[in-house]
Amino acid sequence: MRNQSISRFIFITIIVLAILMVFNVVALHAVRRQYTPGTSAGASLFDIAGQVREWFGYIKQWQNLSIENAHLRSLVADDVSATATIKSLQTENETLRKTAGLATRLKRNLLPAGIFNISLSPDGYYALINKGSVDRIVAEQVVISLAGELIGKVVTVFSTSSQVMLVTDPAFSVTAKVLGNKTNGIVSGALAEGLSLNFITQADTISEGDTIVTTGDDLIPAGLVIGVVRRVENNETQLFKKVEINPSIQPGQGSVVVIQP
Q1: Nearest partner of 114 among 161, 166, 148, 169, judged by Cα
Q2: What's residue 235's pLDDT?
Q3: Angle of CA points 56, 61, 63, to nearest 5°
């Protein structure tokens, strides 16, 4: 232990001596650089002192610039925050305006909400919205987009959030029809394949590109857009046609509304 202390003392001493030697070399170089024949050593030292003061002046300027930059960064951050707040309020106002118009068309009460998580797995297609029991959300309430597109229905309610089963989940079904004619059936989810329209007979009129909407014959209001027919398979040996549908909306994190009583 004593040997270690001695070694540490010697090491520190060497470091200190090296630092002193560096300072001496720098000072000597400065004196030699400043000294010219006919100039006294005192004048040379005076010049060195002037340079030192000048260096300290530069350091002070750097400090002032650093403070000024910090102030400017703070102003920029405040401006960005204010802009974000304005944009958020504009989006909120636009959402409320669209919700009011949609509520008038559907003649139903609507609660604005937001999707903040989506789970697409073989076990089912679900989303979470930021409204729950404290907002009077209950199971089976329908979730739609601001454009009146069917997204899904509430299946589980928590205090401040709710789980929504998406239309593409196999357990989801809704009565539907072709917009513009009387062909109707039942739409059910098909996971990654989108949707299928079932119980369409060979005699029913339906084509690719047709828009499918809700009929209102169940608990879901009429006139909500479900999707567009992607493919129609006719087989005269089968009673029903096979109809595949692309869902009208691919839900992401964004604004939705919940239909309430």
Answers
A1: 161
A2: 85
A3: 95
